[in-house]
Amino acid sequence: MSTSPATLGHRLKTLLEQIYPDLDADPLAAQVIEAFWPDGRPHRQRPRKPSNNMWSERDALVITYGNSIVDGQHKPLDLLLDFLDRHLRGTVSGVHILPFFPYTSDDGFAVTDYLKVDPALGDWSDIRRIGAEFSLMSDMVLNHVSSAGTWFTAYRQGIPPYNGFFIEVEPGDDLSAVVRPRTSPLLREVETVAGKREIWCTFSHDQVDLNFRNPEVLLEILRVLRFHIDAGVRTIRLDAVAFLWKIPGSTCIHLPQTHAVVKLMRVLADFATEPVILLTETNVPKAENLSYFGRRDEAHMVYNFPLPPLVLHAMLSGNVRYLRKWLRAMPPAPLGCAYFNFTASHDGIGMRPVEGILPPEEITRVIESVRSAGGLVSMRALPGGGEAPYELNCGYFDAMSRTFAGEEKLKIARFLCSQTIVMSIEGVPAFYIHSFLATPNDYEGVAKRGINRAINRHRWSYPDLRERLADPGSNQSIVLRELQRRLRRRGQQPAFHPNGTQLTLQLDDRVLGIWRQSLDRNQSVFALHNVSDEVVEMDAYLLNLIDDEDWRDLLNGEIIQPDGKIVLAPYQCRWISNTA
């Protein structure tokens, strides 16, 4: 195998020596290449260089389950494509379909077979059809599999290679420092042909962790990745990747071997002929999250996890002080990388990412406000015992039901302001389907399924949804129309390129002000967001508008005089630009 530093083989060998120092890296690198490019399939001779050309201001995503829309007659994936075509074409460029594989629990995140589509949703032809019309993101649930899946069943029966696919814990292993996102017991006792074994389960006893210390596990996951890419997937979401590698006596989160595995996948993506993007899902504090950019050699994109709770706090408090301070300290994404911005997802609103950003008393205020809006709180276990809030379970639309002051009016305007912030800041914006649809909390779902997260995983009856969208006065119609309008306007502005220049402005504490500039420096946009229920008036000179240019609000067409006044109604957003 060639040893030139630029070659695929050399890069893989270097990483494999870090991951598996006791193994011969040369034959293992050849196995990795065969797993990802079987039968000698071609790959790039030189790696794709980091650039800002893999996304643009026209990019935005919708996050959805395959069965977020049902009617009892048609395949849910067919209904999803119909909804996308009718309502989101020209508004979003891509769709993240949450795990669409057969599963046993956690709404898809306990996968039984990575190579099949859940027949209750449709089949691979339906996935390919969506991927032909929208850029497709899928989940690589690589930390764990279902306890009822084929891999774990084969493990219990002692069938190679699966008899080495899972983590067996010995009685003397020190697990006291392990970081957990759940309160369930870490270990599960199971019967195998070799006797009883204690098996590692980070998330639940139905989600058994894979043993990446066995290279056969890595190779099998790479074969799955290739299968999904061949099916049209272009963005791979690495679910729960932070917990990938376990060493007793350590925290078992963000270990060097985990980062090396992500780097290896990045090498494969860089040499792939297809434009594959890696997105890491790490719901952790800022520094830990940003570490997955590596040195431009790990993830292309990382979730901006502090954003959902910070935007929520700003909207409920009517004050941007903490959001602005955090935003000002955020570094620009490295070349070839981007932030993945969102407020709502299939999970709850994570509270760990604001540790050290929001004071404890402000976190308590957010929790109490969400509870008063009918939301729930999920806890996590702390090392050494005890619990702490892990996430808030509430639809983001309903989380805007009332402010800290108890104000319940202007809910829709408050919500639209929160989503416009996501559109305005550096990065690629993504919107949960239930944000587009102003979906209320699903208490019936919680009662039926027994999990807090069901509150934000409603399944719309398509006939009911279409009726509401046809009613111009419904919450669903109002919110969808306005988000469509703003996103389409955004997609026409080069200043909103995910890597365009960003500067956070020091304005009234009720106004989040952001200056964005296009990569070619021709367009500037001053994005202003009034997060309060009060009218705010400010001098235009505070924005340093250049005198000899024409300035106009892109959202309402108003001409702005550089020496005049700018007035923001409660929760109003303004995009003031030197080009229309």
From TrEMBL:
SMART domains associated with the record: Aamy
Ligand binding (substrate): D106, H144, R237, L238, D239, H346, D347, R453
Respond yes or no to whether keyword Cell cycle is given for this record.
Answer: no
Molecular function terms, GO-annotated: glycosyltransferase activity
Q: Does the keyword Transferase apply?
A: yes
Q: Which residues form a coiled coil?
A: none
Any matching Pfam family: Alpha-amylase
Which BP terms in the Gene Ontology apply to this protein?
carbohydrate metabolic process
Ordered alphabetically, the record's keywords are: Glycosyltransferase, Transferase
Q: Please list the residue ranges annotated as the Glycosyl hydrolase family 13 catalytic domain.
A: 18-490
User: InterPro entries this protein is in?
Assistant: GGa_phosphorylase, GH, GH13_cat_dom, Glyco_hydro_b, O16G_dom_2, Sucrose_GGa_phosphorylase-rel
The superkingdom of the source organism is Bacteria
Which PANTHER family does the UniProt entry name for this protein? SUCROSE PHOSPHORYLASE
Q: What is this protein called?
A: Alpha-amylase
Specify the species: Paenirhodobacter populi
